[in-house]
Amino acid sequence: MKKNLTSQDIARLAGVSQSTVSRVIREHPSIKEKTREHVLRVIREYGYTPSAAARQMKTNRSGAIAVVVANLTNPLYPSLLHFLVNELASQGLRTTVWEMSTELDDITAKAIAESEVDGVIFATAVASSRLQHQKIAARKPVVFINRSLTGPEFDVVVSDNHAGGRTVADYFLAGKRRRIGLLTGASEASTILDREKGFMSRLKDVTGNTTCTRSPLQFDIFTYENGYQAMRELLNADPGLDAVFCTNDIVAIGALDGARAEGRRVPEELWIVGYDDIPMAGWDVIGLTTMRQPLPAMASKAVERLLARIERSDLPAETVTLPNQLIIRNTTKQIGPRRGKR
User: Fold this and answer.
1) What Å distances lie between residue 301 and 86, 136, 297, CA to CA?
2) What does the DSSP 8-state code read for residue 146?
3) Which residues of the chain register pLDDT less than 50?
4) Max alpha carbon distance in the chain (Å)?
5) What's the start-to-end Cα distance of the chain, in Å?
6) pLDDT, tens digit, for every residue of 122-135?
7) Are 35 and 71 in a shared domain?
8) Do residues 255 and 188 share a domain?
């Protein structure tokens, strides 16, 4: 019986109105102390637990956080989502997931802004959707993770993608790689753009020029198939390449098979480096050298920042940038002391 009790049942047992019970639950100041104690005693005696809706009325919070991701076929996003869900659960919060197949549009932005969630964590965002993100941030606390949009209303938690790109360039040069290629897509994502910029700027700093062969194939979806085809076209355009930086692990795994299809021995003739360190990058059959993003730390910081903004909406925007780590595996060769492990 206790499990089926409603606030109306408690009202009948306590001899008060249902609205009085509701005000007691919400700790409304209009309730006399004697009445409050009587209703609370009945609640304890019958083991009544207020519904989620009642608790929301009391706290003005739903206890739910929206996480917006893109392209769950990319193993990076399920991994990041796993860490975010666990981190939110440790704070007693539920997660609702929105998967974006395209950039954020007005209809989806309105739906997120009008939803019952207490805040939003975006793991996908591009500059062209800035207005839609601003509309959501005007209604809900918002934090970006693994994406960056500048603006006074945006909190950001990212890894240092620019420095990661520079690290890959340094690694290639230290390994005496001289015919270097870049395999990337046509993307507005800040992560991809920062990796490209860091990589190219470091080559220019060290060599005095930015000589680097880019893939002739232009694509906007980072898939195994695109990586495979892009690498084959890249090697046909410049057969003498001895190192290729891929700005995404899925593309890098496709590129690895594409290089083998072209008869290149990896790493004896050609080095390949990816980015993200998705779980399959460490599989023995792949063994991809890559830049590892600190996903657990990023998830922890994003949730921490979102909770702070939920408590204080007037906090100034903050950007947290965490370091990445070069993980050397079988698609390149070791140089000096080992810098990472499987």
Assistant:
1) 13, 21, 6
2) S
3) 1-2, 57, 59, 342
4) 88
5) 55
6) 988 777 788 888 88
7) no
8) yes
